[in-house]
Amino acid sequence: MSLPRIIDGKAVAAAVLDECREEAAVLVARGITPGLAVVLVGEDPASKVYVGSKVKTCAELGFHSRKIELPKETTQEELLRVVRDLNADPAIHGILVQSPPPKHIDEEEVIRALDPRKDVDGFHPENVAKLVLEDPTGFVPCTPAGCMKLLEVSGIPTAGAEAVVIGRSMIVGKPMALLLVSKVANATVMIAHSRSKDLPALCRRADILVAAVGRPEMVKADWVKEGAVVIDVGINRVEDATRKSGYRLAGDVAYEEVAPRCSAITPVPGGVGPMTIAMLMKNTLQAARQIGGC
Ligand code: NAD
Predict the structure, then answer these.
(1) How does residue 93 score in pLDDT terms, banded at 50, 70 and 90?
(2) What's the rounded Cα separation, in Å, for the pair 26 and 30?
(3) Known catalytic membership, residue 54
(4) Is the pLDDT of residue 126 over 70?
(5) If you take atom 40 of ligand 1, which residue's CA is the nearest one?
(6) Is 183 a catalytic residue?
(7) Residue 224 pLDDT greater than 60, yes or no
(8) Residues with CB under 6 A from ligand 1
(9) How distant is the alpha carbon of residue 74 from its chain centre?
(10) Atom of ligand 1 nearest to the CA of 234
(11) CA of residue 166 to ligand 1 center, whole Å
């Protein structure tokens, strides 16, 4: 068996960001500076890192950005007021409320309060409906959009392929399955989840296997058909005393044993991860174009 192709998410994300930089310059020349607001409630260290890198990427691309950091005691009503103010702010085209918020916040209600035209995460019910309807004016959630981009630029055929998506979250699994079954990709799709029976047997059917579970190295070599394409969305911290940090990042796929069976595979880190922020920037540009009427 020939060596698997390692899909380089870092390189693809860099190319997407280069395109975004060029498109932003065109919009700026027309008097529209794409603007992204990122709202963080509380002190979650990982969320702080994510928010920081989104704001930094905006600066690198020539976008306007606003970082709104709110204390963890912020009430639902206060947060909704911030969202409404951003909805009304003409300098802001995309709004993102960093997940997860503190437990007392009703995230669903916050998402519904977003102007769907500024919902660059693609979580608002109106954008979910547009994804189902294959309406290109909607926003596609960034991580599954990134997975589709990786398949596309890697020249992986999806039409008629059997795809298995493990995970049914609204952030990754369900939108991923919808994208694969769309009239653009034309795959035959199965969604597996925590109640699915004989997961290894289901996975062995897959020409394209997408793992979005959150369980380190769950997918083993004998779950994977020879020659399959494997997209590993999982980002899990695994204790590792040999590292200075005390942990390493692992995907949902047991990479070392699975990779030799695949025709192509995404590594963790450096696969799907970098694509999420790149697609967020792309969505923000789309919002700026649509709101600006160009
Ligand atoms: P989630 O917890 O919302 O959903 C996990 C899904 O996995 C659920 O639908 C559940 O039914 C399914 N599941 C759980 N245990 C299972 C089992 N034993 N067998 C089969 N299915 C099982 O998680 P999520 O938000 O969809 O994220 C999934 C993973 O992707 C996590 O590791 C997360 O960190 C990662 N993630 C990565 C990015 C990125 O940018 N690369 C973005 C979002 C999420």
Answers:
(1) very high
(2) 7
(3) yes
(4) yes
(5) 273
(6) no
(7) yes
(8) 143, 166-169, 171-173, 192-194, 196, 199, 212-215, 233-236, 272-273, 276
(9) 27
(10) 32
(11) 8
